[in-house]
Structures are given as C-alpha cells and as structure tokens.
Specification:
Number of strands: 7
Order of helices and strands: HEEEEHEHEE
Number of helices: 3
Helix content: 10-25%
Largest sheet: 7 strands, antiparallel
Distance between the termini: 54 Å
C-alpha cells in the first residue's frame, strides 16, 4: 500500500515537472545577440533570456527582442518565426504609443516636431553608437516583438 502511494506521488511529481517545463518553454526563450548595436549593455555572442509578453505589458526602457526587418525595409506579418530558426534584433524601447517620437528618430524619418508614436507601434533604439534601428526603419509593430529581456545568461562569443 505504501509503495503504491509513493509510486503515485512520484508519477504526479514527474507529470507536474513536465507540465512546468512545457509552460516555461512557451514563455521563456534564449536568443544569441548578433552585432554590436547594444554595446556596451550587450556584447556580440551574448545569450539572453527573454520572456514572451503581450503588447500591453511592454514599457519604455525595456530591452526587447524583435524579428529582423524584411526585404525592402518591410516588417513581416502573421506569426513570428520559430525562435531557433530566425535572426533576431535586440533593441531598447525608446517610445511607446502616445509618446513623442525622439528627436533623432523624427529628424532621420523626416517627421515634424511633436509627432507622437501611433497606436500599435514602438520606437526602438540600440544602445551602441552604430545601430540600425527606428532611425533607419521607423516604427516597429508590436506584433514583431518576440519578448522582453530578463537577463544576459552567457557573456561573449
């Protein structure tokens, strides 16, 4: 009787661990940083842990991982690609919907002073001196964001 109870408890523990792993795998993703646009915060080759979050939980100042912009400087549509099978960009949110577009972005994009970020869009910038970001591409749609960086896991290449 006692061994049967222990067997059931062990099975339950294994099932709970498997369920927790599946949930964590859907919510947490590890991505490798490519390029130097986030130096000094992140170095090329760093691996970062990110959490998938809905658009309404994004905040100015967060480091986000987003889909690379496509050919012709156009954003993709539809579901995001598999995290392991795509190149991702790592940038910091500089402005949210309703925020004024940062001056350096407005100038590069030819926007009048006082322009605000439209609904469903973000302005992102790299921390580094040389960064391809919203100064080059303009606004980033919310649905192109894979997640928010929680922490760097491994430094360097």
């Amino acid at each position: 009787m006692r061994s049967r109870l222990l067997g059931r408890l062990l099975l339950l523990a294994v099932l709970l661990a498997a369920a927790a792993l599946l949930v964590a795998r859907r919510l947490l993703v590890v991505v490798r940083v490519r390029g130097s646009s986030m130096v000094p915060t992140l170095q090329p080759g760093d691996r970062v842990l990110l959490r998938r979050v809905p658009a309404e939980r994004l905040r100015r100042g967060q480091i986000v991982v987003l889909e690379s912009i496509g050919p012709g400087q156009r954003w993709g549509t539809g579901p995001l690609p598999d995290p392991a099978a795509a190149d991702w960009l790592v940038k910091r949110i500089a402005a949210m919907p309703g925020d004024p577009v940062p001056e350096e972005v407005a100038v590069q994009q030819g926007l009048p002073a006082g322009t605000v970020v439209p609904p469903g869009q973000l302005v992102v910038l790299g921390d580094g001196v040389r960064s391809s970001d919203s100064r080059v591409w303009g606004y980033v749609p919310f649905d192109r964001v894979l997640g928010v960086m929680l922490r760097a896991l491994i430094r360097g290449s």
